[in-house]
Design brief:
single chain; alpha/beta; twelve-stranded mixed beta sheet; 12 strands
Length: about 300
């Protein structure tokens, strides 16, 4: 089944060119089925790139997905054209009375700040509180995961001495969890962050389960006991060259001691094409989430969903 997005969204032509099944909103309106309603609260500075990465993964299921893109009202993006944001994005006040099958809260380049010092923290808190009543399942990514774990469960984040940067091996910690169906015992995933949450803080919380971890990168995937809240500290959605772009950006800025991404460039040579070792696992994870944690659990009438009690 296709993913439903506006035909003039920049990601549309990119995905069509990759033979990914997308459908324009006009065509989707003529179908007599209910698509999954997924909202993406995009906090990343490279919004168009992040849209495309997430839409690529959300499209890889037999389900039709209707996407709503959300932006902050209390912070103005410096890296995305205002026309793009005005055309394709909504603010929370425009959708706060609506219901969604799923919500994605992305990462953001604000990890070294205390949560309360982030300019849009209050706005994000409002959305996370709203999600307990208006979104059946929420996936939190990277800083979004740290924010969600802190807001909902009081789990603290800790700044790292050196950036966690590269492609790390991870181990499945909950073999029978629906999000991890089909996973190999050991799999790879990218990280690009300056903070972490402690494995023991997740394991010691009675309402959380650690689903996957890395001996090098720490906690990777956690979920609440209802599977309605998913927390991912890395970036499975990243393209083959995203870490390379981040590395070259920091080098071009003249930053000191820019680390090579771990286990990423062949022979640690930035001139060589990186292997795409996490694509299959990321695709499977998003398919599992939409199928097992959302589609098979969410009510047909979204307004009748049970609030999430924490």
């Amino acid at each position: 089944m296709p993913i439903n997005i506006p035909a003039d969204l920049p990601a549309f032509n990119t995905l069509v060119g990759e033979n990914i099944f997308v459908m324009s909103s006009d065509k989707a309106m003529k179908q007599d089925i209910r698509p999954l309603r997924v909202a993406i609260f995009n906090l990343m500075p490279t919004k168009i790139e992040t849209e495309t990465q997430l839409l690529r993964l959300l499209s890889n299921t037999p389900l039709q997905v209707d996407i709503t893109l959300l932006r902050t009202a209390t912070h103005t993006s410096k890296n995305t054209a205002a026309e793009h944001l005005m055309t394709f994005y909504k603010t929370f006040d425009e959708i706060e009375h609506e219901y969604f099958d799923a919500l994605i809260i992305t990462g953001a380049p604000v990890e070294l700040y205390d949560f309360e010092d982030v300019t849009y923290w209050d706005e994000l808190c409002g959305i996370m509180e709203w999600s307990k009543h208006h979104a059946f399942s929420t996936m939190h990514i990277c800083w979004g995961a740290f924010a969600g774990l802190y807001y909902h469960y009081g789990i603290k984040k800790y700044n790292l001495e050196q950036k966690m940067f590269g492609v790390f091996p991870h181990r499945v910690n909950a073999i029978n969890h629906p999000l991890l169906k089909g996973f190999d015992d050991v799999f790879f995933a990218p990280h690009s962050r300056h903070s972490e949450v402690k494995i023991e803080d997740i394991e010691n919380h009675p309402k959380l389960t650690l689903l996957a971890y890395s001996e090098l990168a720490g906690a990777y995937i956690a979920a609440d006991r209802t599977n309605r809240q998913i927390f991912i500290t890395g970036h499975g959605e990243y393209d083959r060259d995203t870490l390379k772009k981040e590395y070259m950006r920091d080098v071009d800025k003249g930053l000191d001691n820019v680390p090579l991404p771990y286990n990423y460039f062949p022979e640690n040579n930035p001139a060589l094409l990186p292997d795409f070792t996490w694509r299959g696992t990321a695709s499977l994870m998003y398919s599992n989430w939409l199928n097992f944690c959302v589609y098979q659990e969410t009510p047909y009438d979204l307004s009748k969903m049970e609030p999430l009690i924490i």
